[in-house]
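Technical note accompanying the year-one report. For the benefit of new consortium partners, we illustrate the data format agreed upon in the data management plan: each record pairs a sequence with a structure-token string. No post-processing was applied to the example shown here.
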Amino acid sequence: MKKILLAFTICSGWAVGAQAADVYTSSVSYEIKADWVKSKTQTWAGSIEGKTYWYKLDKSAKLWWSTDGTKWAEVESQSWTDKDGKWLKIHEGKLVWSTDGTKWSEVPEWKWEGSDGKWYKFDKKWALWTNK
């Protein structure tokens, strides 16, 4: 009887330990949250043929660019490129992009990766936010 009780205790302990380990490992999860902060300069980086340009929007959501951050000119095409070479622009109150400049679609969450590797996004009032 002692042997049966000892065997039962050992098996029960093993089963409970296995269940506890299973519960512990299967319930472990994590979530990575991006921390977005409003850009102090309201400018972002872009690149054309290896040259860096800085972009910003005016109060009418018109696009301006600069090579030095001090002298600004309105961008004729009203478009810029992201890190992957997609063209972006504001069209009919939305941020859109295109790979060929002819077919445009809305940018998901209005965010893109700049040529400097930072992530940027606009809110509904065209304020620029960046990812830390």
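Partners are asked to follow this layout when depositing records. The radius of gyration is 27 Å.
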